[in-house]
Design goal:
By secondary structure, the protein is of the alpha/beta class. The protein has a single domain, classed as TIM Barrel (Alpha-Beta Barrel), CATH 3.20.20. The protein contains seven helices and ten strands. Strands 1-2-3-4-5-6-7-8 form an eight-stranded parallel barrel, surrounded by four helices. Strands 9-10 form a two-stranded antiparallel ribbon. α1 runs parallel beside α7 (about 190-205) and α6 (about 165-170) packs parallel to α7. The chain is globular.
Length: about 210
């Protein structure tokens, strides 16, 4: 089964089109002011309108006020929400949209409990734990922390790039992989060749 690929932190039209041309299944748009990849609602509207059929739009939020999430959803037609902070299950499901819950991985994290608590999530996105930073760090975590047989699909993130994504897919067998800084020349600026290589290596038969 070919793994799905999400390219996160899209800020420019040319990067959006390069990712779609390369075969990305989903693109991430960041609505967190603390990120260098942060978009305004107006910017996101213009970008999401350019998505071709069957490429999902994913909105990333970090402990956002419900009113802000609602304001985004009133204008930006997001297919999936990604909660990257300390949101409780009831907060994630309050918007009536499919969602992913991000988990910052370190020793002692109980993914089985996360699966139970966020039982209606479409999956868990696993990222590296870096103190004070909710994501997009480019750091890799110990894949051995992921137990076998989890009842929810796993989206693997954290420190992935074109050189290690095939190894990651082989080792973890995730449903999908997620990359941001690993295909950039600068925060929020994607490199089309690296994006294409990442998608190709993620989806190769191994």
């Amino acid at each position: 089964m070919a793994v799905r690929v999400k390219i996160c932190g899209i800020t420019r039209s040319e990067d959006l089109h390069a990712a779609c041309k390369a075969g990305a299944d989903a693109l991430g748009f960041v609505f967190y002011a603390g990120s260098p990849r942060h978009l305004s609602i107006e910017q996101a509207v213009l970008l999401v309108a350019q998505l071709p059929p069957f490429v999902q739009s994913v909105g990333l939020f970090v402990d956002a006020e419900p009113a802000f999430v609602e304001a985004v959803l009133e204008t930006v037609p997001l297919d999936l929400l990604q909660f990257h902070g300390n949101e409780a299950p009831e907060q994630c499901r309050a918007f009536g949209r499919p969602y992913l819950k991000a988990v910052r991985m370190r020793a002692g994290v109980d993914l089985v409990k996360y699966c139970a608590d966020f039982h209606d999530a479409r999956g868990l996105l696993l990222d590296a734990y870096v103190p004070g930073v909710p994501g997009g760090t480019g750091e890799r975590f110990d894949w051995g922390l992921i137990p076998a047989g989890l009842p929810k699909p796993i989206v693997l993130s954290g420190g992935l790039n074109p050189d290690n994504v095939a190894q990651a897919v082989q080792a973890v067998r995730p449903w999908a992989v997620d990359v941001s800084s690993g295909v950039e020349t600068a925060p929020g600026i994607k490199d089309a060749a690296r994006v294409a290589a990442f998608v190709r290596h993620a989806k190769m038969n191994i």
